[in-house]
Amino acid sequence: MSTNKIIGVCTLFLISGFFTGSSAMTASLDLSAKSDSLPRKIIPMIGFAFKPGYVFPTHGFLKGENQAQKRISSTLSGHLKYGFRFSSDSRAGRLYPYTVQGIGIGYNTFFNSSEIGNPIAVYVFQTSRITGITPKLSLDYEWNFGAAFGWEKYDPENNPKNRVTGSKVNAYINLGLFFNWQISSDTHLRAGVDVTHYSNGNTNYPNSGVNTLGASVGVTRFFGRGENPCKTSCTVYNPPFTPYVSYDLIVYGSARKKGIFPENGNPLLVPGRFGIVGLNFNPLYNFNRHFRAGLSLDMQYDESANIGQHIANDITPPASEEIRFYRPPFKEQFSVGLSIRAEIAMPIFSINLGVGKNFVCKGPDTNRFYQILALKTNLTKSLFLHTGYQLYRFKDPNNLMLGIGYRFNAR
Question: Which of 7, 86, 342, 350 can bridge 169 by disulfide, Cβ–Cβ 3.0-4.6 Å?
């Protein structure tokens, strides 16, 4: 698989998981409906939003060191979304009356199309209420997870100044806080702020990434026979819950590019791509229906780890194509770590966050603290897709984590 397709595969993975997860949730709700003697319905939604934003100047290219010799400090995007909420006739609708999930597409411009492009983001999203302010006004959150296609990437001949984006496809991660004002029974006006991160997860170089802070103004409209169950007020169905422990077992893989920094030479990009495989075993204490936390045992083999410590050339060559390596021993490319995990659980999706440290490791590339952001998309009650992203030192992208998981003792 080519490097430029890896993030795209992640997006298809997520979106297919969304529809599969929706089907799984549908089957689950059908059973619930039968037991409750209630019909099952979903309430479809269409939304529009416009987002002007500020681009953080994290690289000289964005500060004006580009062919246009102008700062890239502004962005503007337009978004179209289709989603649904579960109606009050279903158990999920009574448990999560404010939660909407779906798919979206967004057109982005950075006002420098020749060097950075006008990427189109395709993503899954979920939004829900944080707290009610008045009967018709609430504070909500929303996350988006997907990929942005159509970037102009670095090219030494045609785009030499752009050392920010090394791929035509980059991961798209967005988180926002919004005031949600119900202006009619089925129409809502939403306004707030959001942050966005674009990166290719080291599937190609350069990978400085692009980060934005923006405002958002949009309208959502619900349709169908099933009306909004919370037109003026809503009481959340909250049956008794007994805390319990579940166990997530995850297997994942990825591919990455590798840059090295020889002691007596310039930084070099190593030709080719390197494989990564990993396993997480994550017991989680379920405090309630929305939150679980625990520890995770994290094992990973990285084919690129510590190769910079095993250069076979007598003198560091000036070109990356000439560099050769001895294969590092297994113990320098395999690591075992322990991380603290917290997870927000909602219909179809769960967001998992982790901070950990490798304790079985050798070499500078694995002897590190690491951070994990992962999205789990339910296929069945126990089986889920896993799309994750691992960082070092809260800022250095390490690798993607694309895999599948199984939850033991799921309820």
Answer: 7
Lowest mean pLDDT across 161-165, 292-296, 334-338: 161-165
Alpha-carbon distance of 394 to 214, in angstroms, equals 22
Q: Which class for 327: exposed (0-12), middle (13-18), buried (19 or more C-beta within 10 A)?
A: exposed
Question: d(Cα 22, Cα 410) in Å, to the nearest integer?
Answer: 18
Q: How do residues 27-51 score in pLDDT, each as one tens digit?
A: 444 433 333 434 457 899 999 999 9
Question: pLDDT by residue (tens digit) across 159-169?
Answer: 999 988 988 99
Lowest mean pLDDT among 29-43, 112-126, 148-162, 179-193: 29-43
Preceding peptide of 271 cis, ω within 30°: no
CA 228 centroid distance within chain: 29
End-to-end, the C-alpha distance of the chain in Å comes to 37
| pLDDT over threshold 50, residue 410 | yes
pLDDT at 397: 78
C-alpha–C-alpha distance, residues 404 and 275, integer Å: 17
Whole-angstrom Cα distance, residue 217 to residue 52?
9
pLDDT at 7: 56
Q: What residues have CB less than 8 Å from 90, skipping those under 6 apart?
A: 29, 32, 33, 38, 40, 41, 42
Q: What angle do CA 96, 101, 106 make, to 5 degrees?
A: 150
CB-count burial class (<10 Å; 0-12, 13-18, 19+) for 43: buried
Question: What span, in angstroms and rounded, lies between the C-alpha atoms of 234 and 185?
Answer: 13
Burial class (CB in 10 A: 0-12, 13-18, 19+), 158: exposed
Please say whether the beta carbons of 250 and 279 come within 8 A.
Answer: yes
Q: Residue 78 is inside which H or E element, if any?
A: strand 74-86
DSSP for 258-322, please give it: EEE--TTS--EEEEEEEEEEEEEEEEEEE-SSSEEEEEEEEEEEETTTTGGG-B-SSS--SSGGG
Angle at 117 between CA 112 and CA 120, to 5 degrees: 130
275 C-beta neighbours (distance < 10 Å), count: 12
Q: Which residue has the tokens 């060191």?
A: 65
Cβ neighbours of 401 (radius 10 Å) = 25
Rounded to two decimals, the pTM is: 0.82
Amino acid in position 314? D
In three-state secondary structure terms, 210 is: strand
- At 93 the three-state DSSP class reads helix
